[in-house]
Amino acid sequence: MLAYVFERFPKFSQTFCYREIAELFRQGIRPAIFSLRGPDFGPETTWDRAIISRVHQLPEGDAFARLANEAATSLPKPMRRILHGWRGKPDSLRLHQATYIGTHLQKLGVRHVHTHFAGMAARTAFWMKKFFGIDYSVTVHANDIFVPANFEIGLSKILSSATAVIAVSDFAANQLRERLPENARRVHRIYNGIDCAQFKPAQFEPPPLILSIGRLISKKGFDALIDACALLRQRGHGFRCEIIGEGPLVGELQARIHRQDLREHVHLAGPKTQAEIAAHLSKATVLALPCRIDPDGAMDNLPTVVMEAMASALPVVSTNIGGISEMVRDGETGLLVAQNDPAATADALSRLINDIELARSFGGRGRKRAEEIFSIEKNVRALRQIFGL
């Protein structure tokens, strides 16, 4: 039997995790699901109750301490000594969570655990393997490998201990193989998946709509997009731009819009459900996501919204960082520009909103590419091979 351990499940900003679980259910695999923290449902209204009801959220506070201590009594003495030795250390909670979950997994007969991100859940899985001999695999994404947190059980220990490491792009997989040459065979590339049938092809109705979607954080480059929109207005283009999402930069971005007198052109639309996002994509002309590498090395790897736009037969304007060029073929399914370059971003957007036939042709090729490489059914079957299911 298979189990998943998440830091938080479901999480509105990590719909790719939910989609993976939902596709496993569709293929007849119903893993046990453990969530270390409470859910973040966000505005989403379509979570499947059959999946949500299967989530075992760990208790908190005194209730968890009592149950974890009870579970620890079943550990062999050497393991109990490790648990005792970590008392009071940073991240010691992971050992107690591993003890609590591990006793449940033993009762369920689970022999393999999968986690997403080389973070809290992976560190918990690391200790489950130490204490109970339960193997684990991990899907790594972006900042968890590009700017890993400094924990005693850090990225190198997690990756060395896991039986398989799933990277969501060739860019990330190649980095990991260089970092772990002795374990290169355990690194696999499996793209995140979507069901393209859930996205209607865009209609390209006037006036042009530039759409952007994501957390309002620096690495998404929304400030560069707003500056590009200012240049488009100066050049006399008629257009609308909607930025869907929430995050810490909402005030700063809104001030930027006001400062450049773009209130009639650029709108911060807030968070939307998956159905609402699909509807917005079907009405757009182009998806713009001018991602950047932050000074600390944080960057996007395989933005889900790019594959969603491609499934919606939209052209994409983005930057050549992480695995984005594996999604967007420059000059075929979209246009890739230099990061932090509003002028180049404006040029690319201008080219597409002024030539709808070009936008349509890029979008059509993008839809075909999405169907070929981002099929959730195909990608989950590849995962199942790694899980031995």
The largest β sheet comes out as: 7 strands, parallel
Strand order of the largest sheet: 3-2-1-4-5-6-7
Tell me the fraction of residues in β-strands, as a range. Answer: 15-25%
Specify the structural class. Answer: alpha/beta
Q: Write down the overall geometry.
A: elongated
**Distance between the ends:** 9 Å
Return the average pLDDT rounded to an integer.
96
- Total domains, how many? 2
CATH class of the largest domain: Alpha Beta
Query: In the CATH scheme, what's the topology name of the largest domain?
Result: Rossmann fold
In CATH terms, the superfamily of the largest domain is Glycogen Phosphorylase B
> Share of helix among residues?
40-55%
Short key terms for the protein model shown above:
alpha/beta; Rossmann fold; 2 domains; seven-stranded parallel β-sheet; 17 helices; 44% helix; elongated
Write a structural description.
This protein is of the alpha/beta class and 389 residues long. It folds into two domains: 204 residues, Glycogen Phosphorylase B (Rossmann fold, 3-Layer(aba) Sandwich), CATH 3.40.50.2000; 178 residues, Rossmann fold, CATH 3.40.50.2000. Helix content is 44%, strand content 16%. The protein is built from 17 helices and 13 strands. The strands form two sheets. The protein has a seven-stranded parallel beta sheet with strand order 3-2-1-4-5-6-7. α10 crosses α15 and α13 packs across α16. The chain is elongated.
Topology, pairings included?
Layout: E1 2-8, H1 15-26, E2 32-37, H2 49-52, E3 55-57, H3 61-72, H4 77-85, H5 93-108, E4 112-116, H6 120-132, E5 135-140, H7 143-146, H8 155-161, E6 164-167, H9 170-179, E7 187-189, E8 209-213, H10 222-234, E9 240-244, H11 250-259, E10 266-270, H12 274-282, E11 286-289, H13 304-311, E12 316-319, H14 324-327, E13 334-337, H15 342-353, H16 356-373, H17 376-387
Parallel strand pairs: 1-2, 1-4, 2-3, 4-5, 5-6, 6-7, 8-9, 8-11, 9-10, 11-12, 12-13
Helix pairs in contact: 3-5, 5-6, 10-15, 13-16
